[in-house]
Amino acid sequence: MPKLLFIVAFVLVGCHFPSKMAMNGSGGRNAYNIEVQKTNAEEMLLNLVRLRYYDSPFFLEVSSVTSQFTFKNSATASINIPGFDKINPMNIGGETLWQNQPTIQYSPLQGQEFANQLMQPIDIGIIQQIIYSGWDIDRVFMLTVQNFQEYPNIPREGLDLAEKTKHIKFHEVVYLMKELQMRGDLQVGIRLESEPGAKTKNLQFAFPSDNDTAKEVAQLMKGEMSANGKYIINIVQGFDEKGNIGILPRSLLSCMHYLSKSVIIPVSDIEDKKACSLQGEKFDIKHGEKKLVTDLLTVYNVPRKPKDAYVAIKYRDTWFYIKDEDLHSKKTFMLLLELFNLQSGRAQDRGPVLTLPIGVG
After folding, report:
1. Rounded to an integer, what is the distance from CA 343 to the centroid of its chain?
2. Angle at which helices 29-52 and 252-260 pack, to 10 degrees?
3. What is the pTM of this model?
């Protein structure tokens, strides 16, 4: 009789179990959250490696995750006729059924949506937002900006001396701006100006004029002194009315091309002409005696799956990965993922949806 009472009680309270199992179990919310985040990072790394090999990038976005949960308890009891079963005159049985059947919908990033998210220049409003969210201005500018006034961010082989000097100046400017940012002196805002037939958007910088770093930035960027004793620099997105370059942001795809140069590929692939060597495209940049950091990311390769990886992906029979202890590369990769998510908000229409039932778990 006590066993029978236990089974009945289990059936009655069983309805309290599914919610905890559905939210916290192996098929729960956190489990899907972790896996989607992990595969998003792997997909981004995969596309960086593809670009390093001059292969086309492709994104398959998770548009929705739904899951059906089934939980069922049942109990049975029977009493045998005395004399037929002397060992166990009473039979008690029960059954518990738990099923988790997830369905994941994928949307390929293509057509107009691909153009909007990956090929449109990043808006300077987004650049300003991510700087104010806590990102260092030098990392943001080195990744997202192609030109900053007359200073290009184009580290490539074959630059003549004049272009190389301007490229070095770009890094000096963003390094000095980071110094102002670390002191809490740098303010970055957006200024809208209306002109006949058009509206222009400016990225505006303001900082105190009472230190040598500020004076050096103002000299390099042609800043003007305001009435309250601050330097003000207004830089138009694109070109001004005289055709002078303001700030030219990269597209997200351009950012990915830029970072793909940091993917280290096997020497055998270079020898087999599967990809080019990029050794001649990098050179040291200094400000005074200090060597400036210009490599935003390093992606290594090994023949077998690495154990110390922050994110890893297998491509062309080789494992490519970012080291978990490489905080500098991890920050840049995280910034790239944030930019990807911010740019995704600019696309309105979704492409075809691929629905895959995963099965019962």
Report:
1. 11
2. 70
3. 0.78
